[in-house]
Amino acid sequence: MNVNIQTVHFDADGKLVEYVQKKMVKLNTFHDRIIKVDVFLKLDNVVHTIKDKIAEIRVHVPRHHFFVKCSSKSFEESFDSAFESLVNQVKRKKDKTLA
């Protein structure tokens, strides 16, 4: 599994990148044929002076793609909620293919 982490409008510190990579390793337990994972961490300040942190995760498996986008006031919180949604999508798809 190839994990690609990109940051938009900021430079991520080592702790955040390490946090994301640790979580992504767990994704293999839910689906064994993951080819590539793209993680986008973005700062969004369109409306307010307080910047929202956006986490987008795109997962590529044979013949299917999963995409999740969540935003909150911290990257960890955004990433965690996006990761949970992604795990649910992957589990549902895998259950459908096995049934």
Architecture blueprint of SSEs:
Elements: E1 2-8, H1 14-26, E2 36-44, E3 52-61, E4 64-72, H2 75-98
Parallel strand pairs: 1-2
Antiparallel strand pairs: 2-3, 3-4
Helix pairs in contact: 1-2
Question: Could you walk me through the main structural features you see in this protein, from its secondary elements to its overall organization?
Answer:
This protein has 99 residues and is of the alpha+beta class. It has a single domain, classed as 2-Layer Sandwich (Double Stranded RNA Binding Domain). The chain is 37% helix and 35% strand. The chain is built from two helices and four strands. It has helices at residues 14-26, 75-98, and strands spanning 2-8, 36-44, 52-61, 64-72. Strand 3 (52-61) and strand 4 (64-72) form a beta hairpin. The protein is elongated, with a radius of gyration of 14 Å. The model has no long low-confidence stretch (mean pLDDT 88).
Relevant terms:
Double Stranded RNA Binding Domain; 4-stranded mixed β-sheet; 99 residues; alpha+beta
Q: What's this entry about, in short?
A:
With 99 residues, the protein is of the alpha+beta class. The chain contains 2 helices and 4 strands.
- CATH topology, anyone? Double Stranded RNA Binding Domain
Spans of at least 5 consecutive residues with low confidence: none
The total count of helices amounts to 2
Q: Kindly estimate the percentage of residues that lie in beta strands according to DSSP.
A: 35-45%
CATH top level? Alpha Beta
Second-tier CATH architecture = 2-Layer Sandwich
Gross morphology: elongated
Q: Superfamily at the CATH H level?
A: Ribosome hibernation promotion factor-like
Report the average pLDDT across residues: 88
**What is the chains' assembly state?**
single chain
Cα-atom radius of gyration: 14 Å
Helix content: 25-40%
**Count of individual domains:** 1
State the end-to-end CA separation: 25 Å
**Could you give the count of β-strands?**
4
Q: Summarize the helix and strand pattern as letters.
A: EHEEEH
